[in-house]
Amino acid sequence: MNDMPRVSRVEFEILSLLRSKEMYGLELVKESSILKRGTVYVTLERMTDKGYVKSREAERGPHESGLPRRIYSISALGQRALAASQAAAAVWEAVAQ
Amino acid sequence: MRVLRAVSKAIEDYVLGPPAQRKTRAADRRVRLGHVLPLGNRPAARITREILMSIDDLKYGLPQIRSRPIRLALGILFAPALLMNDAVIFALRIASMKKRAIVSAPASKVLALIKFLVPKKAFDRIFAQAVEDFREEYYLELAEGRVWRARWLHVGLYLTLLSTTALWLGTSAAKKAVNLWKIT
Predict the structure, then answer these.
(1) In this structure, which of A41, A79, B60, B149 has its CB flanked by the most CB atoms within 10 Å?
(2) How much is the pTM?
(3) Within-domain flag for A87
């Protein structure tokens, strides 16, 4: 049997936000109340290593300057992990009641 | 009036020599004072310009005066004015330098330090992203005239980088420990 994917609260929040569209770090922080600027990129990197999210370098116009931005999107494994976490949460709520 | 001008020119030519042979010319003065002289036709700008130019002529004309007693007398007489002129020009030069100074982007130094210290992957994917987020918000605040908020963001960046570094170090150490445990 495959190991059940473990998703922390912050990871769950990130996966939920990325389910609808791809975003970059600052957008995630602005959309969420629990994500912090100081931790979001380390968490995203950890999730990339786990295979929950994918990232790509954002395309830039010829007039744009600055450091290259990375845009994050949810992977197939991330979607499965999110669905499993949501199902587990629903079961837990039902049991708790 | 014409007589006065002619007499003044004769004295000037006698003291400094004919214009073509003088060491100090208008072009030299433009080079020395061009970016310091106040522009515009307001009385204050015109008077300041005249005073600065006259004192500059005196300063650079004095060593060319052939008669030593006249040179000494003029030098002593105008020493305070010459010193004051130098102070004013120095102050104006400093002010214009400040206005035109090209500064690096915010957080450039700390970014260079981080780039030197951490692996490229971590720099590109974690620290550079955090700094780019900060810069985006910083420039937005400046564009909207909220300078104090921009300064506060600059302070906040250092706190963000501190917590990012602590978390990154912890995560990296944990990852290394897990890898070692798997090997053994």
Answers:
(1) A41
(2) 0.60
(3) yes
* CB pair distance less than 8 Å for A45 and B137: no
SS3 for A16-83 is HHHHHCCECHHHHHHHCCCCCHHHHHHHHHHHHHHCCEEEEECCCCCCCCCCCCEEEEECHHHHHHHH
Plot region of A65 (φ>0 → left; ψ -120 to 50 → alpha; else → beta) = beta
Q: Is residue A46 part of a domain?
A: yes
Contact B130 A25 (CB under 8 A): yes
Q: Is B124 part of the contact surface with chain A (CB cutoff 8 Å)?
A: yes
Supply the ipTM of this predicted assembly. Answer: 0.84
Interface touch B171/A42, C-beta < 8 Å:
yes
**Is A4 inside a domain boundary?**
no
**Terminal-residue alpha carbon distance, chain A:** 30
B48 touches A at CB < 8 Å? no
Give the chain B residue nearest A66 (alpha carbons): B132
pLDDT tens sequence for chain B (184 residues): 677 778 777 777 766 667 666 655 666 766 777 666 777 778 777 777 777 777 777 777 766 676 777 777 777 777 777 777 777 777 777 776 665 556 788 888 888 889 888 999 999 999 999 999 999 899 999 888 888 899 899 889 999 999 999 999 998 898 889 888 988 8
Instruction: Provide φ and ψ at A55, rounded to 5°.
Output: -135, 155
B129 touches chain A (CB under 8 A): yes
Domain that holds residue A54: 9-60+67-96
* Most B CBs within 10 Å, among A27, A37, A50, to test the B interface: A37
**Nearest chain B alpha carbon to A39:** B164
